[in-house]
From TrEMBL:
Whole-protein residues included: 53 to 324 of 324
Protein name: LacI family transcriptional regulator
Keyword tags: DNA-binding, Repressor, Transcription, Transcription regulation
GO molecular function annotation: DNA-binding transcription factor activity; transcription cis-regulatory region binding
Keyword Transcription included in the entry's annotation: yes
This protein's record includes keyword Magnesium: no
């Protein structure tokens, strides 16, 4: 008699569902997995490698059939050696693990080209730490390439992931102090973009009259609350659906493809 060695449990590890992008992505993943007969265990790593390692260990003890991971600042070796199918979403892992992400280079290009086309020259970009393999680094690269193509000087401000909103305020305020002539800001996510708009307005700058701002992600939440925000839409539902399909193919040992790049699009609001 064949023993079916399956739990139909999938582990999902992400930075934090408090971030609307990861929250919506988690909801879409869970729903898709549920439709396919799986249940999920969700962990928020909070970008804390120790918490992530603890979760990974527990998920292995619970004998999950597979893992969907979007948070792995460290511990890549652990995933490699976990001995079960792993799919990475939104972040680059290593050559063995498939990555499902949107086309972040194209997104960075669309945002930067959009600002340049509006005649502004001093465009500043905010991004996460440059030494992590996040997809936002491709946005940064595209921003730098587009700026250089137009003979413009790229200027990037790096923000740590776990800093408080108040500390982010300080970094964004520094932009206005150090670059009072800033004409546009390309933020690497929507929540930062909204925060920047609020700070700009508090400092007497009107958006878009005095400052253009473009965000990134285009989550449903932000598009409903701030429909005027110009942003790059990541296809969250499509990322989730592809991740689940690839995981199922990996479970069935049917695919070796490594990278799945999904299209982004520009949401033409009025802020940038
Ligand atoms: O804050 C969410 C951002 O972090 C998203 O843009 C996502 O792609 C991740 O890198």
């Amino acid at each position: 008699q064949l023993y079916k060695n399956k739990t139909d449990l999938i582990g999902i590890l992400l930075p934090t569902v408090a971030n609307p992008f990861f929250g919506e992505l988690t909801a879409a993943l869970e729903d898709r997995l549920y439709q396919q007969g799986f249940k999920v265990i969700i962990g928020n790593s909070m970008n804390n490698p120790q918490k992530e390692a603890d979760y990974l260990q527990q998920l292995l003890i619970k004998q999950v059939d597979g893992l969907i991971v979007g948070s792995h600042n460290q511990g890549i070796q652990q995933y490699r050696h976990a001995g079960l199918p792993v799919v990475s979403i939104d972040r680059i892992m290593n050559q063995d693990i498939p990555v499902i992400a949107s086309d972040n280079y194209r997104g960075g290009q669309l945002a930067t080209e959009r600002l340049i086309a509006q005649g502004v020259r001093k465009i500043i970009h905010t991004n996460g730490p440059h030494d992590l393999a996040t997809p936002a680094q491709r946005r940064r690269l595209a921003y730098e390439d587009s700026m250089k193509e137009h003979n413009l000087q790229p200027i990037t401000y790096e923000l740590d992931f776990n800093i408080s909103t108040a500390d982010k305020d300080k970094v964004f305020q520094r932009i206005f102090v150090e670059h009072p002539d800033v004409e546009a800001i390309f933020a690497s996510n929507d929540t930062d973009a909204v925060q920047i708009i609020q700070l700009a307005q508090a400092s007497g700058r009107q958006v878009p009259r005095d400052l253009l701002v473009i965000g990134y992600d285009g989550t449903q939440l932000v598009r409903e609350l701030v429909p005027q925000l110009t942003t790059i839409i990541q296809p969250i539902a499509q990322i989730a659906q592809t991740a689940v399909e690839v995981l199922q193919r990996r479970l069935a040992k049917q695919t070796k493809q490594k990278e799945y790049l999904l299209p982004v699009s520009l949401w033409e609001g009025t802020t940038g």
